[in-house]
Amino acid sequence: MKWLFRQAKKHENPAPRSKRELARMILMKIVLYAVLIYGGLSALAFLLQSWIIFPATRDIYRDPSAYRWAFEELMLPVDGETTHGWFVPLENARGVALFSHGNAGNIADRLESIGLLRSFGFSVLAYDYGGYGKSTGRSSEQRSCQDIRAMWRWLTEEKGIPPKKILLFGRSLGGGATAHLAREVEPAAVILESAFLSTVDVAHDKFPWLPARLILRHVFANKDKVADIKSPLLVIHSPDDSIIPYRHGKELFERATEPKQFLEIHGDHNEGFVLSEPIYRKGWEEFLAPILPRPENRD
Fold first, then answer.
1. Same domain, yes or no, for 86 and 222?
2. What span, in angstroms and rounded, lies between the C-alpha atoms of 132 and 56?
3. Whether 241 is catalytic
4. In the chain, what percentage of residues exceed pLDDT 90?
5. What pTM did the predictor assign?
6. Quick one: which of 25, 44, 53, 188 is 20 to 30 A from 124 by CA?
7. Does residue 297 fall inside a structural domain?
8. What is the CA 284 to chain-centroid distance, rounded?
9. For residue 44, is it within any domain?
10. Is 214 helix (H, G, I), strand (E, B) or coil?
11. 42 catalytic, yes or no?
12. Structural domains in the chain (count)
C-alpha cells in the first residue's frame, strides 16, 4: 500500500523538467503556431485570389451614348456563357483597336480610354471578361482568353476586318489576355501597357513569404508568351508604378523579339497614361505611323 501511495504522489507531482527541455517545448510550440498561421494565410490567399485578381463590378451605369458615339452592342457566346462588348466605329479610321482593360470595374469605367483610342484614329472594340458587367459566368485566366478570342473572331469573321488592320491593346490585367491572343494570331501591332511578368512574380514582389507558385490558379505568364509575338510590339511602363514594378515592363521588353519598342512614361499605375499625355501620345504615334498610318483627309 505504501508503495502504491508513493507512485501516485510521484505522478501527481512530476519532477521538474530541465531548462533545455522546457526551451525545446516552447520552441516546438512556436514553430507549430507559425506553421498554422502560415498555412492559414496561404489558404486564405488561395480562397480569395479570384476576388483579388478580378475585382469586377456589374453595374453598367453608362455606355458610349454618353459621349454621343454610335456603337454596336455585342453579346457573344463563350463556352456556354455570354461575353459583352461595345464596338464603337470611327469614320475614316486607321484601324480597329481591340482593347482589353485592367482588372477593376467594367467597361462602363473605360469610356475615357475609348475616347483616347478614338483620338489616335481607331475604331474601338472594348469588352468585359466573364463576371464583369453584363458578361455572364465567372472570371478566370482561361475565360479572359476565351473572351478576347471571341472578340477577335467577331472582328475578323463577322465584320470582315483584316488582321493587319487590328491593334491589340492590353492595359494591366488586360495585357494577359492580349499577350495570349497575340501569340496565336498576327495583328498589325500589339501594345502592352503597365503589364506584368506573371501574377506569381507580382505576388513574390508584394508577399515574398507566400508560396505563390503553389496556390495561384490564374498565372497569366506573360513572360513566357511575349517571345512568341511576331507582330510589332510596344511595351509601356512607368518607373513610378507602385502596383506593377517597372522591372516587369523592362523584362517583358527584353524577352520580346524584334520588332519592338519601349515607351517610358511617368505617374502611378492607374493614372500614368493621363499624367504623361504628351509623351504618351508621341510614343503611340511614332510606333504606329509606319504600321497603321492615319488615312489622308478626303475633304
1. yes
2. 5
3. yes
4. 74
5. 0.85
6. 53
7. no
8. 21
9. yes
10. helix
11. no
12. 2
